[in-house]
Write a structure and sequence with these properties.
about 70 residues, mainly alpha, two-stranded antiparallel ribbon, 3 helices, elongated
Length: about 70
């Protein structure tokens, strides 16, 4: 059994893949990814800081999504 600490919320979870977050946080990140993707589609000229302000998604996640 492979147990890991979620990099996002700190909870322990059973790790099945190389993803560093628990399933609940992975679901939240997927939602944030789709939000960022939609924002970029409407505003392709914006930089990471503007995308973060416009979506409420943290900068480090936006960079990781890219």
């Amino acid at each position: 059994m492979n147990v890991a600490k979620c990099k996002r919320c700190g909870r322990l979870f059973q790790k099945y893949s190389s993803h560093p977050v628990c399933p609940e946080c992975a679901k939240k990140e997927e939602e944030e990814f789709l939000q960022v993707k939609a924002f970029i589609a409407e505003h392709p000229e914006e930089n990471v800081e503007s995308i973060s302000r416009g979506t409420g998604v943290e900068r480090h996640l936006i960079v990781r999504f890219m």
